[in-house]
Design brief:
Layout (H helix, E strand, L loop, with lengths): L6 H5 L2 H19 L6 H13 L4 H4 L6 H16 L8
Length: 89
């Protein structure tokens, strides 16, 4: 898929912006708990694949897409912090 047929590349600066903001967060989390290591590499790989034209790498749920990796990190953070969603109004 060429850049001209990938409309998200024209309006989303995420290939560079997300990489710049993700790395410091990943480093801080990894220093706290080793199991947080790897999320950044998985997200970067999905981001590269999406930017190359694989739209499923943005929001797919059957592969290590950007969405899936972010969701797994979020769930890991919620569990680590001991947040019980049933008590949140």
């Amino acid at each position: 898929m060429s850049p001209a047929t990938r409309p998200w590349t024209a309006c989303w600066p995420w290939p560079t912006r997300t990489g710049r903001t993700w790395a410091p967060l990943a480093d801080r989390l990894r220093l706290l708990l080793a199991r947080f290591g790897g999320y950044d590499a998985r997200f970067a790989a999905a981001r590269r694949r999406a930017h190359a034209g694989g739209t499923g790498w943005v929001d797919g749920t059957d592969a290590d897409s950007c969405h899936r990796v972010w969701f797994e990190l979020h769930e890991d953070l919620v569990a680590t912090l001991g947040i019980d969603r049933s008590t949140i109004p």
